[in-house]
Amino acid sequence: MDHHDAEADFEGLLRAADLRVTRPRLAVLRAVGRQPHADTGSVLAAVRTEEPTVSHQAVYDVLGVLSESGLVRRIQPAGSVARYELRVGDNHHHVVCRSCGTVADVDCAVGVRPCLHASDSHGFVIDEAEVTYWGLCPACATQKSATSN
Amino acid sequence: MDHHDAEADFEGLLRAADLRVTRPRLAVLRAVGRQPHADTGSVLAAVRTEEPTVSHQAVYDVLGVLSESGLVRRIQPAGSVARYELRVGDNHHHVVCRSCGTVADVDCAVGVRPCLHASDSHGFVIDEAEVTYWGLCPACATQKSATSN
DNA sequence: GCGGAAGACTTGACTCGTTCAAGTAAAGGG
DNA sequence: CCCTTTACTTGAACGAGTCAAGTCTTCCGC
């Protein structure tokens, strides 16, 4: 038991996923954990505060393998670049601000995965239902109503 | 009543939306109607079969204003370029093939708009719930199971 | 601990969907 | 039919993401 009780055991997660433990991977996991819904650029910047020599290609590669392995989740709302989060496996959803692009988590209203079944799926084999709510975040909503006064 | 009974009255739709009626706009509407879920490049190609001199910028502009006016709907599944469809206002959803990217329509399981309500929306003012189902299309599904034999 | 093979990272060029900017052409109200 | 508004053309630019070649690390087996 070390002094990082509150932090996830990223090294263990990587080993459990049969992935090599490297400084860039640990730094990316910490960065995504610290800043949920960060885009690649933000992750890169955050990583470089701890590991200044990490290349942008490494961050793309790492985010790619972590996504494939299910250690991070990649989301990409229309009109946005790819964003990443550590919260995986609970099938939660997202609400996106149409004005500023801010993303927030929304718990699944149904709770089972996939949490919706399509009425007619055209023969597709469906494994996930992704829900994106669109609207205005509190800040943009008050701003808009103030402007229209 | 002209000889195009089966076709939508695109000119009327444009006028109703307070948009000028132009040859590029009519051609884009026809193209999107013919080929639902087409990306910008396909729309451009289709438009040029009728109007060979239309620029690619014009297609971007037209798709932009038609989307804003609600005459076409823009979707952008993660990892895909923007796609467009004429079917608007019925809040239907989409199923996307993880393997080949094919998109198909799925009727809304609930039927009201927004068809889901978030349990805790963090103060966001939500106006739409967009559902994307992920899986494999019939062709890719049979291909995969054949390969793994 | 140590060596070697598999895999990760660095560097730098490049692709391509999309946007920007300036000038020309067309729509449609008066 | 003219004039103003707004669309469209042309051509350059942007930026997220990818590709490719070479170097460095990880970690397994000894």
TrEMBL record, chains A, B:
Claim: Transmembrane helix is one of the keywords in the record: no
Subcellular location: Cytoplasm
UniProt entry tagged with the keyword DNA-binding: yes
Highest taxon above the source species: Bacteria
Keyword entries, A-Z: Cytoplasm, DNA-binding, Iron, Metal-binding, Repressor, Transcription, Transcription regulation, Zinc
Main location: cytoplasm
Alphabetical list of Gene3D superfamilies matching this protein: 3.30.1490.190, Winged helix-like DNA-binding domain superfamily/Winged helix DNA-binding domain
Family as reported in the entry's similarity comment: Belongs to the Fur family.
Record protein name field: Transcriptional repressor
